[in-house]
Amino acid sequence: MKTAICPGSFDPVTEGHLDIITRASGLFDRVIVLVSVNYDKHYTFTAQERMEFVRKACAHLPNIEVDTYDGLLAEYCKIKNATAIVKGLRALSDFEYEFQMALINRKLNPACETIFLTTRAENMYLSSSIVKQVSYFGGDIENFVPDTILGDIQDRLNQERRKHNEH
Ligand code: PNS
């Protein structure tokens, strides 16, 4: 059984992420969506919330599992016996960072390959921070996040905005 890991911050999961996860689920027997920690990021949603969003958005995909881990991705891949890390690649802006991560992960765990799926053209501009920013300024995020979690995300972001405005 071939297992792949789709790691990311997913703060929150977007249509772009869901597209990559869906395509990975067609390529591997089992895909674990790993809600991970990016040392450089400050998160809006807790790991439990981010996992719950991913779970709901992927409920229709039978071979997807959702997990969280606050250690090294390469170590997690060893624990799960995963042969691949699958990541989405947008335009040039992602390349250098993703290339560096792939090389480091291969050094730490040579048994695991990083595979990049190129984003769909309509998701080129999309990111979790853009979703949060559009919502913060009252814009519509309907086209950016999966339908199944749109209401949940809007509620939580409205709550964040109110909290921010009180201070
Ligand atoms: O969605 P992101 O923030 O681009 O995802 C980056 C993430 C979380 C996949 C990456 O930071 C990660 O793998 N974190 C786990 C710790 C780790 O293994 N870091 C890379 C080696 S230094």
Provide a concise account of the structure shown.
46% of the residues lie in helices and 17% in strands. The protein is an alpha/beta fold and 167 residues long.
SSE map:
Elements: E1 3-8, H1 15-27, E2 30-35, H2 47-57, E3 64-68, H3 73-79, E4 84-89, H4 92-108, E5 113-118, H5 128-136, H6 147-166
Parallel strand pairs: 1-2, 1-4, 2-3, 4-5
This protein binds 4'-phosphopantetheine (PNS).
Describe, in plain words, how this protein is organized in 3D.
This protein is 46% helix and 17% strand. The chain is an alpha/beta fold. It has 6 helices and 5 strands. The chain is globular. It has a 5-stranded parallel sheet with strand order 3-2-1-4-5, sandwiched between helices. It binds 4'-phosphopantetheine (PNS). The site of 4'-phosphopantetheine has 11 residues, from strand 1 and helix 4.
Which key features would you list for this structure?
167 residues, alpha/beta, five-stranded parallel beta sheet, globular, binds 4'-phosphopantetheine
Arrangement of strands in the largest sheet: 3-2-1-4-5
Structural class given helices, strands, pairing?
A: alpha/beta
Total strands: the figure is 5
Report helical residue fraction.
40-55%
From the alpha carbons, calculate the radius of gyration and give it in angstroms.
16 Å
What is the ordering of alpha helices and beta strands?
Answer: EHEHEHEHEHH
Categorize the overall geometry: globular
How would you sum up the major sheet? 5 strands, parallel
